[in-house]
Write a structure and sequence with these properties.
heterodimer; A: mainly alpha; MetI-like fold; two-stranded antiparallel sheet; 25 helices; 4 strands; B: alpha+beta; Rossmann fold; OB fold (Dihydrolipoamide Acetyltransferase, E2P); six-stranded mixed beta sheet; 9 helices; elongated
């Protein structure tokens, strides 16, 4: 192709690539420099101190323990659902799938809030149980405990197990199972010796991913764990950086966290390859059947419990936000007083801040993402794609730490922009992951046809490719917006008291036991996330390659 | 206007370990097919002509204009792809109007032309259909109309019918011929189906492993294939080594001085088509090559005839017959003027 035309595809991605590298590597290098340089001299003492400190090792052990248990519980809840979704046909299957995507788009701080309101000592569940069984004491005392962390994590992550494994199950070659039955194996035997072994890679793939999410979980631990007893590495990084003002130690802990994350990401890549080998793309989908009566009761029970599990905490937040009592023990009545109060002062400022930051971050992220996608597709460059996915390998707390170090160098005036940039780098991999598969599935001949019909490369992109990516762009925009508006970890690391966002204010309100205020603000966040969810569902239907 | 609509002068391209060299010219209004097995470079040829692939060296001339370094959009060579590549974000009418819109043709003019083209491809009133509502054959017609709307100097069809079923393929290839003649449209038609190429083309390019084996009329290509590859690719036939045939030549009453074969026939390969083989229980005739005591190995019923496979001294001979032979032993004879002799794959 001549120079004039290819200039567009050659040069379009460069500004985006330079920005990506700057936004990702500069904070990371600054973080590392804190761990290896003391008073301008290279030293390994900070890192070796951090890796041998017994308290840190206890924190590391706890981080592993909670992540492993959370992963197991997530699998326990998610796997039956995976089987039901893949093997049975029933009314409301689509609705069930949709409900199970809800935890994906919910910011962690909302989940925490929902858990406090629903499972708390004076939460809805305890109230209900006390009324039902006439108890004087709340029977469930799980809040601010180890169990609460595990349950909150599995709330968040069971859909990962459910979706990944049900997709894998749907793509297994059904003829193997049929062959097994015709060779004389019972259906249970077939499941155990023929179906399950082929599912193991995808179960492991889901497990490693869930482990990573739980390992780097922050908001859940910060609020539900709290004390030194239930501290994970991420929380300890936050404590060291923001409470003890010990950046060297925080950076050394970041290295500890990154080492584990990268190891598990590598593991995930390996098992994912095995999982992909089991699927047969393009073959007829697995036939589903209606469950028999006995199974049907179990299925219905499971689904009802699952829906309660997912929706109860969210519903609690919404209900609690309009319930008000004039006195501490007085009767509750419905009141929108709190919403009225939101229109004043710091809450309104937080809402405005969040919306502005989310809008700016997602627009920048989409533009950068599109430019990088053009380049990934045209050059078929796996290296570039890996660079684009790098920010995913590092927890948002560590990204926040890097930007916090920059903000200390640059002064307070920059922090607004730094939050936006941190959000850009956090959302960028999600944007590319949403757009790229659609872009790749677009037949190359569509572009070639436009070129031979008289389009320049730029015209072909603007007139053909971009319109075809519209729904993917809309979906990724809404996801980027949702991630940014719910993002608390990096923002909390970065923000001085001058900039408040919705999740940060909710966190502070929870800390000061102002649950109702938190719920009112939380309801607004739920509303935004719900709209995002609706947009992405609507966009799915309009996709030309769906 | 010069005779040649397109000429490629020593155009070379190497992609990984595959390389292709092309040198040919096509006249105005001609329909030229490019045939060859998969991987022979057919689609690369389309890419080189349309500008989607840049040649390593050589010159490409379209309508007396050197377009070698021009972008695809400046070449006036529209492609109809195997997968149609219709734009799913536009309806049928807007797909067809697209090349005119790019060239800033006025809207009323565009609409008129879209309607004409829909009539041409025999899909009137299909202007507002969504792409995913169309059948494969309809998509093919719309893709053809869209390419014609660009008013290209050269129309390139890249295996346009290969995704369709056999019956529809036959209908559409007649349609393409009709439209091509009606427009006097210079066309290159890429296919791996030799019968398609034989029935449609003014001339055929046989491509093998990046090289042109033969460029000639369908009749010449079929009756006097220049290479053994072309002979075997364009239809069925028996290739038998000269040394085996030589003994048969001696047995038959063919006089060496009178026959058409070279003196060193034993190092050649002889080729003939199944339909030229006469089957008899015992038969002898002058100026035939005769294989006695052939054994029937298989007989496949193909509807209008039987495809037969005989063995003769370890070689296989293909023959055709209206009825199934009654005996498993036969004498096969082929008129010597129907036999082609190849030395090192080249026609003697």
């Amino acid at each position: 192709m001549s120079k004039k035309n290819s200039a567009f595809i050659t040069y379009a991605p460069y500004p985006a690539l330079i920005m990506l590298i700057a936004l990702f590597f500069i904070p990371l290098l600054l973080t590392l420099s804190q761990a290896f340089f003391k008073d301008g001299k290279l030293t390994f003492s900070i890192v070796s101190e951090a890796f041998s400190n017994p308290y840190n090792l206890k924190v590391l052990a706890f981080t592993f323990k909670q992540a492993i248990l959370s992963t197991l519980l997530s699998l326990l809840i998610g796997l039956p659902g995976a089987y039901i979704l893949a093997r049975f046909s029933f009314h409301g299957k689509k609705l069930l799938r949709a409900i199970c995507t809800v935890p994906f788009v919910l910011p962690p701080i909302l989940v925490v809030l929902g858990f406090v309101i629903f499972y708390g000592n004076s939460g809805f569940l305890n109230k209900l149980l006390m009324a039902l069984f006439n108890l004087s004491e709340p029977p469930l005392k799980i809040l601010y405990s180890f169990q609460a962390i595990i349950i909150a994590h599995s709330f968040y992550n069971f859909p990962v197990a459910m979706n990944m494994v049900s997709t894998a199950l749907e793509q297994l070659d059904e003829n193997c199972d049929k062959a097994s039955r015709t060779l004389g194996a019972s259906s249970l035997r077939t499941f155990l010796s023929v179906t399950l072994p082929r599912l193991i890679p995808s179960i492991l793939s889901a497990a490693t991913l869930i482990f990573l999410f739980c390992f780097t979980s922050f908001a859940v631990i910060l609020v539900l764990g709290g004390g030194p007893q239930f501290t994970t590495i991420e929380v300890e990084i936050y404590n060291q950086a923001k409470r003890s003002m010990n950046l060297g130690s925080a950076s050394a802990l970041s290295i500890m966290s990154m080492t584990v994350c990268i190891a598990f990401l590598a593991l995930n890549t390996i098992v994912q390859r095995h999982a992909a080998a089991q699927s047969r793309i393009g073959a007829t989908s697995l036939s589903t059947r209606r469950p028999r009566l006995g199974a049907r009761i179990l299925v219905v029970l499971y689904i009802v419990l699952l829906i309660l599990f997912v929706l109860a905490p969210i519903a609690s937040v919404l209900i609690r936000s309009v319930l008000s009592s004039s006195t501490r023990s007085g009767a509750k009545h419905i009141s929108f007083e709190l919403y009225r109060r939101l229109t004043q002062g710091s809450s309104l400022q937080a809402i405005a801040n969040s919306l502005t930051i989310a809008l700016a971050a997602s627009i920048v992220s989409i533009i950068m993402g599109l430019a990088l996608c053009i380049s990934i597709r045209r050059r078929r460059s796996p290296a570039l794609e890996i660079i684009c996915m790098l920010p995913m390998s590092i927890s948002t707390v560590i990204i926040g730490l890097g930007y916090y170090i920059i903000s200390r160098l640059s002064g307070q005036g920059m922090s607004y922009m730094l939050i936006v940039l941190a959000h850009v780098i956090i959302t960028l991999p999600f944007v590319i992951r949403t757009i790229m598969p659609i872009y790749r599935s677009m037949p190359e001949n569509i572009t070639n046809a436009a070129l031979t019909l008289g389009c320049t490369m730029k015209q072909a992109f603007l007139r053909i490719e971009l319109p075809l990516l519209r729904s993917a762009i809309l979906t990724s925009f809404s996801f980027a917006f949702a991630i940014s508006i719910g993002e608390m970890n990096a923002t909390l690391m970065l923000s001085s008291n001058t900039i408040q966002t919705i999740p940060v204010v909710i966190y502070r309100l929870i800390n000061s036991y102002n649950y109702q205020g938190a719920c009112a603000l939380g309801s607004i966040l739920i509303l935004v996330c719900f709209m995002v969810f609706l947009i992405s569902e609507a966009a799915k239907k309009r996709s030309p390659y769906a | 206007m010069p005779e040649e609509a397109l000429s490629l002068h020593d155009v070379c391209k190497t992609i990984d370990d595959f390389s292709i060299t092309l040198d040919f010219s096509i006249n105005h209004g001609e329909l030229v097919s490019i045939v060859g097995p998969s991987g022979c470079g057919k689609s690369t040829t389309i890419g080189l002509i349309s500008g989607l692939i840049t040649p390593d060296k050589g010159r490409i001339i379209i309508d007396s204009r050197d377009v070698t370094s021009e972008d695809p959009d400046k070449r006036s060579a529209a492609v109809v792809f195997q997968d149609y590549a219709l734009f799913p974000n536009m309806d049928t009418g807007r797909n067809i109007a697209f090349p005119m819109k790019i060239r800033h043709v006025q809207k009323s003019e565009r609409q008129k032309r879209v309607d004409e083209l829909l009539d041409t491809v025999r899909l009137p009133s299909f202007g507002k259909r969504r792409i995913n509502e169309l059948s494969g054959g309809e998509k093919q017609r719309i893709a053809l109309a869209r390419a014609l709307a660009a008013n290209p100097s050269i129309l390139l069809l890249d295996e346009p019918l290969s995704a369709l079923d056999a019956k529809l393929r036959k209908i559409l290839r007649r349609e393409i011929c009709r439209i091509q003649k009606e427009f006097g449209q210079t066309t290159i038609y890429v296919t791996h189906d030799q019968s398609e190429a034989l029935s449609m083309s003014d001339r055929i390019i046989v491509l093998n492993n990046g090289r042109i084996e033969q460029f000639d009329t369908p009749q010449k290509i079929f009756q006097r294939p220049a290479t053994l590859f072309t002979a075997q690719f364009m239809g069925e036939g028996t290739a038998i080594s000269g040394s085996v045939a030589e003994s048969a030549l001696r047995l038959s009453s063919v006089d060496f001085s009178q026959n058409r074969f070279s003196d060193t026939v034993e190092t050649s390969t002889l080729f003939f088509r199944p339909e030229d083989v006469q089957i008899a229980e015992s038969f002898s005739l002058c100026s035939t090559l005769q294989f006695d005591h052939c054994h029937l190995e298989s007989a496949d019923y193909e509807g209008s005839s039987w495809a037969l496979e005989y063995s003769y001294k370890g070689s296989t001979i293909l023959a055709a017959s209206k009825s199934k032979p009654e005996s498993s032993e036969a004498s096969l004879s082929i008129r010597t003027d129907r036999i082609l002799e190849y030395k090192d794959g080249i026609l003697v």
